[in-house]
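User: Before I run my own analysis I want an independent prediction to cross-check against. Here's the chain; please return only the structure tokens and, at the end, one sentence I can use as a sanity check.
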Amino acid sequence: MSEPKKTTLYVDANDEITAVITKLQDAPSRIVAIILPKRAPVFQSIINIKLLKKAADKSKKKAVLVTSDKTVLPLAGSAGMYVAKTAQSKPYIPQTPSPVQSSIGTTATKSELDANKSVGELSDSAEKSEEVIDVSDFPKIELDDEKKDKKDKKKSGIRVPNFNKFRVLLIVGIILLILLSVGWYFAVYVLPRADVTIETATQSTAQTIEFRASPDQESVDQEAFVAPAYIEQFELDDSASVSTTGERNDGDKATGLVTVTNCESSESGSITIEQGAALTSSGGRVFRATETVDVPGSSISGTIFNPQCDENGQEEVPVEADEVGTDYNISSTDYTVSDFSASSVYGSGAAMSGGTDDIVQIVDGADIRTARQQIEQGSSAEAQSELEQLHASMSRTPLVETLTIESTDESSEPEEGAEADEVTVSVRTTYSMLGVTGEDVRTLIEKHMEEEIDFNTQAIVDDGLENASIRVTEEGEDGFRVSIRTIVAVGPEINNDEVAQAIAGLARSETKSLLIAREGVRDVQIDYSPFWVFSTPNDPEKVFIEVIQQGSEPEEPTAPESPEEGQAEG
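Assistant: Structure tokens:
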């Protein structure tokens, strides 16, 4: 289907110029006849007609206003817009009320439509007369129109503001205002800070404080110098493996026969060699009877030193070595019979044989003890460290000497006596240690210092507990005797928060004068940052106080003497 040569648009009385422009741009043909209602408000403005013409030029369309409204005609002439009385009338550019506007109309007449043809004829000849409107001339014509509009505005004294430029300037101004506000806030409230260094005169003295720490005490007793002792426990599972050193001979036992002679007279009766009875060779080897044997008395009495006994008083007793091994493969020898100390009973045996050696490595009790000692050496140090940290996390001072083992659960794999090249001993040990709170110790230090300083004018600025030497000197039924050796620094009390509150917002000179006036303050150094800050910030959190104590430095405290050391020296 071919494109229509002419489009007719009907404008409603209430249409806005934007709606008319949209209809124009959507028209399918290049020739557009715009039929206006009577007294259409939208075409009572020269600006709207110019906007419509500009839109037609950009869309490469030829627009004609179909109207006979006398108020619209001069405006159309000023804008160079073609008009026609009817859709079949020939278009023309109306006369303008001024020479300048007339020139615009004349220019348009020469460059756009043929005034001698009707709208219908223009639509028929649109494709043939492409030279009527030269598209390449639109920018030039548009620029000329804009120049003429500017000249007209200058002559009329009316300037139309550039709203796009104004909007850009407004946005840039708002952004700059925001950046300036944020920068001002950071410069005034965030970045400023004051570092104040206060040098004070202090007197340090070495002090030894002794007190009693008891698990039964509920609260610190300043008069009796007793502090509660808190117990902490730590359970540790550990194991150690060592090579086994035990040996066992799994060979066979030597066996043989021993002839037992009973030199007692037959009238005295026979003797019985019980099973398991020991028969000891002259070399000290022990053999045991493997069965019970009765040995009758001899017909002729005698002794081993006077062997007058006859064979009637003899019996062979089967024996087995008391232990395995080749050491019991002995030659023939004499034997003594246990439970028969009389010299009238003795034994004589042939060579023993059958004893063999089969040495295997086993777990010995000494191996288990060696592994346990290794565990105790490492576990004790680890348990002490863990319990010290546990007390420290609760702001307590650990009493290391009170470290004890509460319970031990030990096992070995394999067990003692088992054949193995290595044994692993596992031990679960529960350790315990006492500790006292730093607050209780400080209370006792202050009580101890009451006789040496006046707390109305002085204060303990450093109790030295971080570097103090603490030792348990004695354990008794009422608790543990504890001795603390520390260095106590006495001087003016400086509360950093109170000082920051007091100097907030003051100038440098005022801040320094206020602090120097405090008793015990030697010097004050104030550093402001950044470079544009010349007074103490109003926010106390931006004021950082550092107190440097200047005074005598006694020797570091030495560890109190332990009871064992004291006894050794005595």
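Sanity check: Confidence is low (pLDDT under 50) at residues 100-113, 122-147, 557-570.
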